Amino acid sequence: MGYILCSEIYFFCIAILCIVLFWLSSSNTKSASELWMKYVLVCFLLSFVSNYAGSLLGGLLPEGPENIWILYVFKSLYYFLISTGVYLWCGYTEISLGNDTFRTNSLLKSLLLFLPNVVPVIVILTNFHTHLLFQINENHIYTRGPQSDFLMLYFIVSTLIADIKIFSNSRSEIDPVRMSQRKQIATFPLCLIAGWLFTLIKRNIPALCVCITVELLCLQIGSANRQILIDKLTQVNNRQNLNRYLLNKLRQHPEELYLMMIDLDSFKSVNDNYGHLEGDAALVRVAVALKQACKDCRRHPYIARYGGDEFIIVTEMAEKEVRELCARIHTTLRKLNEDAGVPYSLNLSIGYAAWKEEMTPNELISAADTELYKSKKELLRNSR
Predict the structure, then answer these.
(1) What is the pLDDT of residues 288-334, one digit of tens each?
(2) From the centroid of its chain, how far is CA 141?
(3) What is the DSSP string of 224-257?
(4) Among 160, 179, 159, 177, which Cα is nearest to 169's?
(5) pTM for this entry
(6) What whole-number distance in Å separates Cα of residue 365 and Cα of residue 311?
(7) Rounded mean pLDDT of 243-272?
(8) Are 311 and 305 in contact (CB under 8 A)?
(9) Which of 262, 240, 261, 251 is nearest to 359 (CA)?
(10) Which of 349, 355, 344 is CA-nearest to residue 310?
(11) Helix, strand, coil % (nearest 5) of the chain?
C-alpha cells in the first residue's frame, strides 16, 4: 500500500511540474528571471523522475548485491539534482532582485559562483564509499544516513541567506507588485523545512517532493496573476496597476511624493522611418533606462507605462533627488542608445509635480503633465 501511495505521489508531482513547465514555456515574456525559473523547474522535475525511476527499478530488478550500484546511481542523481535545483533557486532570487551576480562571461567568476554547490557534490560522491548519506541493502531497501539531514540543513541555510538578501533589498522597495513577488519567493525555505520535518516523521512518504511542487505551482500562479498588472511589452507596471497604486499610496499621506511624467520625443518618426517593431524596441530601451536609473535611488521608485510612449515614475524623495534622477535617466538612455547602435537618437521630456494634501491621483498626473508640456515648449523654443 505504501509503495502504491508513493508512486501516485511521485506521478502527481511530476505531472504538475510538467504542466507548470509547459505553462511557463508558453508565456510571451522572455525575461532572465523566467529563464532561471525554467532551469529550477527542469532540475527539480528531473530529480523527482530519477528518484521515482530508482524506486521502480528497486522493485523490478532481482534482489542481490549485483544490481545495487544501479540504484545508487539513480539515488545519487536525485540528490545531485535537488542540490542543483536549490543552487539555481538562489540564482533565481538574485536575478529577481535585479542583481548582476549570475550574469557573467568570466569563467573564473562562474566557477567561484558554483562553489556553494561543491559541498553537496562531495557528500554525494563520497557516499559510494562511506554510505553516510544513504544506504541501499541487498533487498533494495533504502535507508537515509546522518549526512542526509546535514544536506537538508545546508539547503535550508543557503535559501535563508538568499531570503536575507530579499528582505534587505525590499526595505527600499515601494512597488507592491515586486513586493508581492519577493514575499512569495521568500517562502521557499519554509517549504524545505516543512518537507524535511515531515520526512523525519513519515520516512516513507516523499514529503519534500510534494512541498517543492506546491511551492513552484503557487509561485507560477502568483506570477500569472502579477502579469495582469504588468505591461506586456516593456515589463513595467501598466496603467491599471498605476491607478490602483496611486489611490493606495495617497491614502497613506506620504511626506514627500513626486510624480514624474515622461514622454519620448519624436517617437512617431521612429515608427514612420524604421517600422513599428523598431518602435517597440525603442520603448523597451526606454523602460530599461528608467529601471537602471532608478536602481541607485534611496527608495526604489514605482515605474509604469501610462500609454503609448508615455511613462510615469512615482517616487518618495526630495526635489533635489528628483532632479538628479531626471539627469540620470537622460544619461542612461543616451548610453543604451549608443550601445544599441541604432541610426537614431532617443530623447525624453520630463515633467514632475509634488503631491499636495487633498490632491487626487488624476490631479497629480495632470499637474505633472502640465510641467511636461512646459518642458516640451521650452525644448521646442531652444531648438529654433
Answers:
(1) 999 989 888 878 889 999 988 999 999 988 899 999 999 999 999 99
(2) 39
(3) HHHHTTB-TTT-SB-HHHHHHHHHHHHHT--SS-
(4) 179
(5) 0.78
(6) 11
(7) 86
(8) yes
(9) 251
(10) 349
(11) 70, 10, 20
